[in-house]
């Protein structure tokens, strides 16, 4: 999927705190400072409501290019809303969502379009088709991307690439979904709970695939998860949400340090999400 960043950035409306201006006259609130380093993704005072439900309440953060950032929080915390806004599937009611043009490449529709790949939590496939069918179809939709043959080898699809999807295991379907998410050779990859439902061994195998996808920082990854061991194993930075608000940001160690008395990420999660206290590694 190719996204023109400015199309999303144009969804800027006055926030409850006044006009959204990413400059010194209207800085981000203390504890939710936006990174000064080049950011692949930046949220500025984003607000999102669904009826009377506040899904995101004045959320500001930045994900630097090349990061593998984990988005954590309980169900209903706002994780999926954030991912959908980055993909252009939803627009904020206030604030702005910015994607870095400099991370993109020249394309036929925009001089510096940013390529985004995504694996949604619930990937639906036609059971009578094979992984090979899907890879060939997506390759035709994304000419100039990664070849099906390369993805089959890189993601270990060889053993089942010509089997009907109806007969594949959950882990095999997840591998296919991950391979399809990068067939356009994206700059930014969004993964919505990519290992949910996998057994511990399959989950660790999947972590290795995600590291390969990250490619040592050549791509920026943002993934949501409920598994703290997954965050510790993969993430270079953490965004922790509770009830639509950002309660902690930074490295795993920095997030643990924000929760007084916490000795682990699990304890920090229990403390910060349980209290809903607004804090941050940059505070």
What's the Cα radius of gyration? 19 Å
Biggest β-sheet strands, sense, barrel: 7 strands, mixed
Q: Which structural class fits the helix and strand makeup?
A: alpha/beta
Q: How do the strands line up in the largest sheet? A: 1-6-7-8-4-9-10
Kindly describe this structure.
By secondary structure, the chain is of the alpha/beta class. The protein has one domain (2-275): P-loop containing nucleotide triphosphate hydrolases (Rossmann fold, 3-Layer(aba) Sandwich). The protein has nine helices and ten strands. It has helices at 5-9, 79-86, 131-141, 148-154, 170-181, 200-214, 228-234, 252-258, 265-275; strands at residues 2-3, 39-50, 53-64, 68-72, 94-99, 114-119, 188-192, 220-225, 237-242, 245-250. It has a seven-stranded mixed beta sheet with strand order 1-6-7-8-4-9-10, with helices on both faces. A hairpin with a 2-residue loop joins strand 9 and strand 10 (245-250). It holds the Pfam family ABC_tran. Keywords: ATP-binding, Nucleotide-binding, Transport. Residues 1-34 are annotated as: Disordered. This is ABC transporter ATP-binding protein.
